[in-house]
TrEMBL record:
Its main location: cytoplasm. Gene3D superfamilies: Mur ligase, C-terminal domain, Mur-like, catalytic domain, NAD(P)-binding Rossmann-like Domain. Residues 309-422 form the Mur ligase C-terminal domain. This is UDP-N-acetylmuramoylalanine--D-glutamate ligase. Keywords: ATP-binding, Cell cycle, Cell division, Cell shape, Cell wall biogenesis/degradation, Cytoplasm, Ligase, Nucleotide-binding, Peptidoglycan synthesis. It comes from Psychroflexus planctonicus.
Amino acid sequence: MQKLSILGGGESGVGAAVLAKQQGYAVFVSDKSTIKTKYKAILDEHEIPWENGKHTEEKILSAPTIVKSPGIPEHVPIVQKAIEKGIAVISEIEFAFGFTKSTLIGITGSNGKTTVTNMIYHILKNAGLSVSMAGNIGDSFAYQVATNPKEIYVLELSSFQLDGIVNFRPNIAVITSITPDHLDRYNYEFEKYIYSKFQITKNQTEEDYLIYNADEESITNWIDHHEVKAQKLPMSSKSISRVNSICKQNNNIEININNKLFSMSLENLNVQGEHNAKNAMASSAVAKLLQIRKHTIRESMESFQGVEHRLEKVSQIDQVTFINDSKATNINATYYALDSMKHPTIWILGGVDKGNDYHELLPLVNEKVKSIICLGVDNSRIIEAYGNVVDELFETTSMQEAVAMAKHLAEANDQVLLSPACASFDLFENYEDRGRQFKDAVRKLA
């Protein structure tokens, strides 16, 4: 019986373990931290041996392959020892790929990938197709392949997941954007991060498609200097006068694939903003490639409600609007959030800094922000960047304190925006936990 070791007993690790057991592997799951009760229950139900709070090297390194959870960096000792021994270290996405013949749509990007994943899923579900979302969202890809197989998977893929692929090949790949993010994981080298994102297309063939944001130099430069075998579909907010392109013309989306034109008004979208126009362009193009009816695409895009924790209007209290953008974990995402603010803004930000250049936001801060509330363990770089820019800057250590401070500072017609520009792991479990705590704190004000 072939052995498989799994590092990390979270969503992806447990999903890979269930699939591996189903496929006849002798599986062992190891997590240096404490495995959550719900995941222990799944492992026990499937009679999969596990450990937490330690790594038993002898057991882990006895397998020819290790599935590594995306949150574990490559530089940790156990992973380095595995690599030195010639053990294959792969991602759960790569492992699951070997056991499915389904159509795969892979979406990656520094920003927009969650919204695009949800948009595509919404369209395909409305079209009556057998489809599910997986990857960085919902139940893991491997767990779904094992327990609830579908004909189409829409996969949200982080750079960490793509770092661990060997043969994984999506039929349609989408790159929404590549701006500096997670640079702490890539030795603060933007080029390495770009390379990781482009792993999504490395195994694609001439039969596959790559939809990409042609308005970003980081993406077009890479494509100009590297071979891409997939059929390329550039996406731009400007007019692109060639076959096989996606562009914005006179507030319309225009998609031209093999001389077949699809057009849709952006005015009818339920989610607004320049970034959502791009998201709609990518999603509609995927739907056209899958030959979804025009009417279904238009109807779906008009009914799409948006994504939790992404510019989510929580409440209006005493004429002050509270907006949850907890999913903004980098500077570029927060740029879109600040840019969309129409009234004086009290901005809550901070967390685990991933190599941010806060000065990129200075023009928007000058124009839009009246007060800043820091919410993080170490706010020194934020204070350094904005201390002399806004009249009021405060430090807080809990969401309840931050929201109460924002309510105290706000006047009628102001907006309170949680858009942290940072990861959440200093004070919160993840960005979802941070966003839910914000919403709970706001609702308690009412």
